[in-house]
Design a protein that fits this description.
single chain, 339 residues, alpha+beta, six-stranded mixed sheet, three-stranded antiparallel sheet, 9 helices, 11 strands, globular
């Protein structure tokens, strides 16, 4: 068998993901006939059918499903190799950190301070993107490390959980739901997320709110901000305005809602939505000392924040106990005086 070329893999992945030769050709910027010939040649070269074609649909065969999984990994690896070589040749290497704007659990400033104290010689460059894009940026070499929500099941990366926090639902103050003390997903039937997804599917399947930019068809939404030069909440005002007008609802991690109280928005607990896990993630094959320093800073800061939260909760519990005891004593004294 001849070695496969990246061009063949790119063609196949486009067809396999679109399951339509016309759309795949448009995505690749080429005509459909040469694309069809290229896929037939790939099948001949491998000696197995990759696609089942009928007049109505295109489906992957078992061989096609295997190739799609491995082709994605291979293409990511090729892209990553080129990008990381370019990054290594920069006059001043940078640590590229991918994140979704404002989804850091309030930890990022302290993480950056702890990272800077380790003096790696690599300043941080931020890459802002929508939910779910951070892992792809790690795999194809655009980013070196990332802060991600709900990292379980993400292929090609390792991660360390930092904190867990509940999602709250943001609705207009005029929405009938605003009178509820809490809601469940079934209550959201008919309501939509900013990107048009049904809200009753929950925050993960609906991809939370696009804080790094509303969905843009046909474009790479992952912007790059060097040394914090791009606003971290570029589209939050637009999303908040849509919510205030009653045009959409949105799920936010609770730490974000604390930063952005709005008089015309009500944040509601959702009882059947699991909490979000914020994690620091990096490519499985990373050997970067700067990445290791950032991961170490993130985990140490998160651990310290967890200890502080535990101490605050314990202090609040002790104070409540003391108040209750004092109230009980006062009642006892009053009873004795009346007697």
């Amino acid at each position: 068998m001849n070695d496969l070329e990246t061009r063949q893999l790119r063609y196949f992945v486009a067809v396999a993901e679109e399951l339509n030769f016309g759309r795949a050709a448009e995505r690749l910027g080429m005509a459909q006939p040469p694309l069809s010939r290229a896929i037939r040649e790939l099948e001949r070269q491998l000696g197995v059918p990759l696609l089942e074609r009928t007049t109505r649909r295109v489906q992957l065969t078992p061989s096609g499903e295997v190739l799609l999984r491995d082709a994605r990994t291979a293409l990511d690896a090729v892209s990553a190799a080129g990008r990381r070589a370019q990054h290594a040749g920069e006059t001043t290497p940078q640590l590229r950190v991918a994140l979704k704007a404002d989804v850091d659990g309030g930890l990022l400033p302290r993480i950056l301070e702890a990272y800077a104290a380790q003096n790696t010689g690599q300043p941080v460059a931020f890459m802002l993107g929508r939910y779910g894009e951070q892992a792809a940026a790690l795999r194809d070499g655009r980013a070196d490390v990332a802060l991600v929500l709900d990292p379980g099941g993400i292929r090609g990366v390792d991660f360390e959980p930092l904190l867990s926090e509940p999602f709250l639902l943001a609705v207009a103050a005029t929405d009938p739901l605003a009178a509820y003390s809490e809601v469940c997903l079934a209550d959201l039937a008919g309501r939509m997320m900013p990107g048009g997804e049904p809200a009753d599917q929950g925050p993960v399947s609906a991809q939370v709110c696009s804080l790094g930019g509303l969905p843009q068809s046909g474009s790479d939404s992952f912007g790059q901000a060097i040394n914090g030069s791009r606003s971290a909440n570029s589209d939050l005002p637009e999303i908040f305005r849509l919510i205030e007008l009653g045009r959409t609802v949105c799920f936010f991690p609770v730490s974000l809602t604390a930063r952005y109280p709005r008089p015309d928005i009500v944040y509601l607990p959702v009882k059947d939505v699991p909490p979000a896990t914020l994690a620091v993630a990096w490519p499985q094959d990373s050997r970067s000392t700067a990445v290791a320093a950032f991961v170490r800073a993130a985990t140490e800061v998160a651990a310290a924040a967890g200890r502080a939260a535990t101490e605050v909760a314990a202090a609040a519990g002790r104070a409540a106990t003391e108040v209750a005891a004092a109230a009980g004593h006062a009642v006892a004294v009053a009873g004795a005086a009346q007697g």
